[in-house]
TrEMBL record:
Name of the protein described by the UniProt record: Sarcosine oxidase subunit beta
Reactions listed under catalytic activity: sarcosine + O2 + H2O = formaldehyde + glycine + H2O2; sarcosine + (6S)-5,6,7,8-tetrahydrofolate + O2 = (6R)-5,10-methylene-5,6,7,8-tetrahydrofolate + glycine + H2O2
Record key words, sorted: Cytoplasm, FAD, Flavoprotein, FMN, Nucleotide-binding, Oxidoreductase
Native source species: Acuticoccus mangrovi
Residue span, Rhodanese domain: 35-79
Enzyme class label: oxidoreductase
Similarity remark: Belongs to the SoxB family.
GO biological process, one term: tetrahydrofolate metabolic process
One GO term describing the cellular component: cytoplasm
Length: 417
């Protein structure tokens, strides 16, 4: 693997950039692995990387039905933050933010992590109370978050319209300065390259059709489009398709899969310094390094596996964006797309062991799992390697839906998300 450095950039520039080696080889499945990971998104690839690096487990295959990063990892709007209400969530997402900060150096790959700050706008008295509660809870957990008045929010984000007569008047905002964005594809590519360099096989265009269990009920491997692959352990990290994959092992999960859409504008010069989210109107916006405004909305109202959403929702989102940022009213939109997000009843992830020996699951990230990528991957690797949860993911069990020990971020946010 070529090490990226000023020297290697210069050397390759002198040969017209024609001598770069492939970043990872295309692998064909072997007959057997210690661990098979279903899903080559950021979470699955990251898990493979940490299994190899921190636990010395390198007989690992990451298998994807399509191209790596082609699921939600490559479709998301890249917002990273850790301002969740509950202690369990704060620990998990802040662990991820800690890892994001050093990830480019760790992977020797420019993942373009940008600490540009995330502003969450309050438009109602209820929003004000809810965000202030979040701020207090976050600060008790050592997570940075502070309250801004409407004028302070405008000073932080000059294009924001704070007219009190607006349809969605801004009554203030919660600001997490440590939050920001990263380049989504680069996260998948960086983990893939680093995992492959440690011996992991990355197998693309190979759907896993079933998880196979032996006579004692334990996992014995996976059936795939390229034949059966024996495995001592299987970890499923298949986002919106998780319930389908896990169903083949007779494990039922409390998941619903919904389309979630986003869109980008034509590129313009840098004009938008941070990320702004408005949960109440289901619209959020940032500017990519290419200059496009990256805009997203809430989930569609119906379950689907179609990877595209309805136009009505996007129309509503764009109308809200134009009210909050009238300066963008003449921008042209370039393209829109959708991903399938896996939503749990309490809007928190399921990350850990399952009732089936040797089978692990990482799902239920819904609309918000990109920010968790390094943290989730790190604790999933720990769980798979040791067959016991890391203290950070210990509360994120499947059993909580029978014991009632929920981590109810849905109720905490008081918006559908
Ligand atoms: P994925 O990247 O989806 O990877 C799962 C992989 O499993 C896929 O590549 C898929 O092809 C593969 N797979 C599925 N079934 C099979 C099978 N049978 N066999 C083999 N492979 C299979 N989160 C944030 O934190 N911030 C955001 O701003 C944000 N914005 C979003 C905007 C949109 C439009 C969408 C759709 C999501 C957004 N999210 C956001 C959520 C985030 O993208 C996901 O939670 C996260 O990327 C999930 O990562 P993953 O690696 O688990 O899943
Ligand atoms: O979780 O911050 C988030 C998010 C923003 C857009 C989609 N998810």
């Amino acid at each position: 693997m070529t090490h990226f450095s000023a020297f290697s950039l210069l050397k390759n520039a002198l040969s017209a950039n024609e001598n770069w080696r492939p970043q990872w080889p295309a692998a064909e499945p072997k007959a057997e692995y210690d661990v098979v990971i279903v899903g080559a998104g950021g979470h699955g690839l990251g898990c493979a990387y940490y299994l190899a690096k921190e636990h010395g487990i390198t007989k690992v295959a990451v298998i994807d039905k399509g191209w790596l990063g082609g699921g939600n990892t490559g479709r998301n709007t890249t917002i990273i933050r850790s301002n969740y209400l509950y202690d369990e969530s704060a620990r998990l997402y802040d662990h991820a933010v800690d890892l994001w900060e050093g990830l480019a150096q760790e992977l020797n790959y420019n993942i373009m992590y940008s600490r540009r700050g995330v502003l969450m706008l309050a438009h109602t008295v209820h929003d004000v109370q809810s965000f202030q509660r979040h701020i207090h809870a976050n600060r008790l957990n050592g997570v940075d978050n502070r309250w801004l008045t409407a004028a302070e929010a405008k000073a932080y984000c000059p294009p924001l319209n704070i007219s009190p007569t607006a349809r969605y008047p801004v009554m203030g905002a919660a600001l997490q300065e440590r939050a920001g964005t990263a380049r989504h594809d680069a996260v998948a590519w960086g983990y893939a390259r680093a995992a492959s360099a440690r011996g992991v096989d990355i197998i693309q265009n190979c759907p896993v059709t079933a998880i196979r269990r032996g006579p004692d009920g334990a996992v014995v491997g996976v059936d795939t489009a390229k034949g059966f692959i024996k495995a001592k352990k299987v970890a499923v990290s298949a986002a919106g398709n998780t319930s389908v994959v896990m169903g083949t092992a007779d494990v039922r999960l409390p998941l619903e899969s919904y389309p979630l859409q986003a869109l980008v504008s034509e590129p313009v010069k840098p004009c938008f310094p941070c990320v702004v989210m408005s949960n109440t109107v289901h619209a959020y916006i940032s500017q990519s390094n290419k200059g496009e405004l990256v805009i997203g909305s809430g989930t569609d109202q119906y379950t689907s596996y179609s990877q595209r959403g309805g136009l009505a929702l996007i129309e509503h989102t764009v109308a809200a964006i134009v009210e909050m940022f009238p300066v963008f009213s003449r921008m042209r939109m370039l393209r829109m797309w959708g991903g399938i997000v896996d939503v749990t009843p309490d809007r928190s992830a399921i990350l850990g062991k399952t009732p089936v020996k040797g089978l692990y699951v990482n799902c239920g990230w819904g609309t918000g799992g990109f920010k968790a990528t390094p943290g989730a991957a790190h604790v999933l690797a720990h769980t798979v390697a040791r067959d016991e949860p890391h203290p950070i993911n210990a509360p994120f069990t499947l059993e909580r839906f029978t014991t009632g020990r929920l981590i109810d971020e849905a109720a905490a946010a008081a918006v559908a998300h």
